[in-house]
Amino acid sequence: MSKIEKSWRPQTALVHGGTLRSEFGETSEAIYLTQGFVYDTAEAAEARFKGETQGFVYSRYANPTVDMFERRMCALEGAEEARAAGSGMAAVAMALLCSLKAGDHVIAARAMFGSCRWIIETLMPRYGIESTLVDGTDIANWEKAVRPNTKLFFLESPTNPTLEVIDIAAVAKIARAIDARLVVDNVFATPLQQKPLELGAHVVVYSATKHIDGQGRCLGGVVLSDKKWIDENLHDYFRHTGPSLSPFNAWTLLKGLETLPVRVKQQTESAARLADFLAEHKSIARLIYPGRPDHPQADLIKRQMRGGSTLICLDVEGGKAEAFRFVNGLKIVKISNNLGDAKSLITHPATTTHKNLTDEARAELGIGAGTLRLSVGLEDVDDLLEDLDAALRAA
Asked: Could you read off the pLDDT of 357-386 as tens digits, one per residue?
């Protein structure tokens, strides 16, 4: 990243960061749909594979379009290096597994996406990696869970779906004290509302499928960290296991990044207004929204986040039956387990994203029969208010 790029503010970096232009001088980034690359001589190929000359070798390792996406994400996140993956879960898996071995121990906040929890609770033990899940909002729990073999900490903040917020700086301090690494899934905050690396985290993960694309078009993920950690841990894992992002999806995500600030700004403003409306509605038993003064971690949010969220967690009175009636009565808001989209989306976590958890595990996380997760889109907020109100009245 050049000195000029480092000086750019986010809106500029998201339009111009990392751009590579061919000899044709194209305005929009080029899509390099190629598996491999050719060399002028056998000696040139040998030098490229030895790392003696710069250039691309194979699109499973690196590709010009994917490289542009990685560079642009680095410019936004303030990271030295990045690796893009085919999906958000591929990014989470490689961020967690690339530096661990049998006998290591992981501490993770128990409030997380169901597939993330599966990796930690089900997959890791198959390879001899131990784990402890804690209530991440209480910093003392992280300290108590530390063992001599603890190597990695993992958390989401805000969490999926109950929007708990965890003190990233405090957890990072504990990790540093024992020479462990903190990996933060920053999807719900977006890189505009929260900067985990600035707060002390070592690795940041995104499902680019969400806000970064933001228009329901493609899958993608990215892991960002310092160059040393990626070179020593992630590089070979990535190269040999092949979770690579397709060039076409990388190009699509580059287009998404150009409009990320304007989308997140409007979505956050609309979500705040909808949260205030829902909090006062008699049919809503509980409303959680980062940015409202009644959020359980309101003071931490003021210190740690630069804005609210595009997501709202709510509980409908009457449990699953009434929640389903409400959701089925919506006309504009669509039923989908995705989030961060231009379209407003709603899902019932207990029967979708977190259905594989036990009843006890869901209760621990605050996911009840009437819990819903609302992802606010780009529609006119007054239309959304009328849609929610009409569906609640009908339910």
From this structure: 899 999 999 999 999 999 999 999 999 999
Token pair 């997140």: residue: 264
Contact 340, 187 (CB under 8 A): yes
Q: pLDDT, tens digit, for every residue of 11-26?
A: 899 899 999 998 989 9
pLDDT confidence of residue 8 = 87
List, for residues 30-41, the tens digit of each pLDDT value.
999 999 999 999
**What CATH code would you report for 260-394?**
3.90.1150.10
CA distance 344 to 358: 28
User: DSSP 3-state helix, strand, coil percentages of the chain (rounded to 5)?
Assistant: 45, 15, 40
| Residue found under tokens 């990685």 | 70
Q: Confirm if 85 and 92 have CB atoms less than 8 A apart.
A: no
**Distance between CA 226 and CA 274 in Å, rounded?**
38
In whole angstroms, what is the distance from residue 27 CA to residue 46 CA?
34
Report how far Cα 366 is from the mean position of its chain's Cα atoms. 21
SS (H, E, C) 154-202: EEECCCCCCCCCCCHHHHHHHHHHCCCEEEEECCCCHHHHCCCCCCCCC
Question: Is the preceding omega at residue 247 within 30 degrees of 0, hence cis?
Answer: no
- Of the candidates 111, 139, 120, the one whose C-alpha atom is nearest the C-alpha of residue 362 is 111
Report residue 16 as tokens: 């111009």
Q: How far apart are CA 47 and CA 44, in angstroms?
A: 5
Residues 47 and 9: their CA atoms lie apart, in Å, by 38
CB-based contacts of 147, cutoff 8 Å, min separation 6: 105, 130, 132
Reduce the DSSP state of residue 151 to 3 states and report it: strand
In the block, residue with structure tokens 């290591």: 104
pTM score, two decimals?
Answer: 0.95
